[in-house]
Amino acid sequence: MIRARWLFAAAAGLFLAAAARDGVDRFISATGMPPLALSTSVEVEARDGTLLRAYTVADGRWRLEPGPVDPLFLKMLVAYEDGRFHDHGGIDPLALTRAALQALRYGQVVSGGSTLTMQVARLLEESGTGRVAGKLRQMRVALALERRLSKEEILSLYLRLAPYGGNLEGIRAASISYLGKEPARLTAAEAALLVAIPQSPEGRRPDRHPERAEAARARVLARAVRAGVIEAERAEAALQEPVPRARKPFPAVAPHLADRVTKADPLRQTHRLTLDAALQKRLEALATETVEARGERLQVAMLVADHRSGEILASVGSAAYRADRRQGFLDMTVALRSPGSLLKPLIYGLAFDEGLAHPETLLDDRPMDFAGYRPQNFDRIFRGEIRAREALQMSLNLPAVALTDALGPARLLSALEQAGVKPVLPGGQPGLAVALGGVGVTLSDMVQLYAALARGGVVLPLHVEGEGAPGRRLLSEVSAWQVADILSGMAPPPGAPANRLAYKTGTSYGHRDAWAVGFDGQHVVGIWLGRADGTPVPGVFGADLAAPVLFRAFARLKPALDPLPPPPRTALTVSNAELPQPLRRFRSRLAAFQTTGGPQVAFPPDGAEVERLRGGLKVKVEGGTAPFTWLANGAPVAVSLGGRETMLDLPAGFLTLSVIDADGRSARTAVRLR
User: Fold this and answer.
1) How many Cβ atoms are within 10 Å of 459's Cβ, its own excluded?
2) Is 309 a catalytic residue?
3) Looking at residue 333, what is its pLDDT?
């Protein structure tokens, strides 16, 4: 009978325990949970993951993704806050019992019984810590959290939410602000400080209460020694390390570009850019140095790209990102300005491609009248006949306008658009003034254009995120190399190294803009100086002001230039006397076409697709005076031919064929050879 009663009592006890367990399960499962998806700061990173800039969340707090955290910090945190964190289910009965007994004995709270999970519950709900109802609610949420999340996920929430005073939340925001570093590698003193502050975030802020912060850090170190986390000697050494007494500003590297990419894609949490963080900082320092002794309004912008990949490595929108008389908040890398003479290399490259000229061709530098448009050279001096090479190096206006007249301004505008430039015409219609800067472009546009010249005439759009788009041809490889060869022969600024950097300067009308863009075998760098409001800067010249900055930028980019490529196999590298007769002196294509009896390409017709025969491409000319010279993409392929038909050994692809007769008259056709 007694045994039966015991069995009944045991069964009843098990039933009640099971019922209680089920009731607790239902109670925990029914817990209304706070949102677990936390908004964190939008971050902009360099190519290696270095933080360039972060933005506060909607309520103005700094709350960053934790990222890698020093293991010593995590060990100290668990030892100090919740030694049995990895063993309990959200509530530590031993810690709660100890806290209750101490409170009864001393009449006040001596130690807390909250686990890390309970602290996460409190932080998620932003509830208080002292009231019994609040503590019970935290216990319930903690039990629910433990059922839904892993220990690592709970710890990750703590690392995001732990308060560090002011508007700082989370280990990473605190480490960057107080220590000026990421929390991936911390000293014992730094780790202990970051463990201590959240216990009383306003009372232990080292920037306001360094003595309290130091005392709290000592207690964390002592607990870490007792728990065997660190040795006593290491803790003693850590006590000697000074406590930081001020907050450091969050990184604001490449701020203009960071603003642009976040505005373009506001939903992306992390933007990984192609920028080189160290180079960006060096060039931002150079920008500050450049303008600091030149009044309060002069501004500078810089852009560096790897023209092989199209990656932008540095982008400096202004000398300082602030509202000052320089209008530093404006991003001058994308501001519309007049390019001055920066378009001349493209003009010459197109002329070389069209068979209008060669670097050794003689051009006229004399007064000219283009239907009422009478341009002048910058120095108002005329030099008579001059080689195309020298005319470009001296940046003479008359030869450039004459070539543009022969090409047609619309051809120049079309080439700019092919290069990815978005030119803005003041009057809407292109005129010859475009050749001398009568068009609106940006520094980004000009770096994009010169990158194509540096890449052998192939356009590869510059980019700061993701992969570059496939390239397309703007100029033939020969013409692009000829332009680069000419620009690399320009004399460097006084005091700069004679390193054969291919570069060009420009000064806009009214001395409003000073430019310098240059490239070597791998990189292209663009410099702009002027006033952000577009007012003139008396005495400013690209050669005097921007070119020295360009050479200093290359010096901060790398110790030595990468060599430019050798001449292509088909490049005609001869003197003027050895050129085909029609290429020795430039004659306007318009004038040639206006002369009766000029040559015409009888075959292949313009715009045709032609099959390549065994001997190449058959061509035929009508009219004109023999001998004839044929050019393909600006390179001579048949010289002084007496006959009107011939076979040209040409590769498949898109070709611009030109034929020039003995009187310098010419015709051309564009075909695709298959």
Assistant:
1) 23
2) no
3) 98
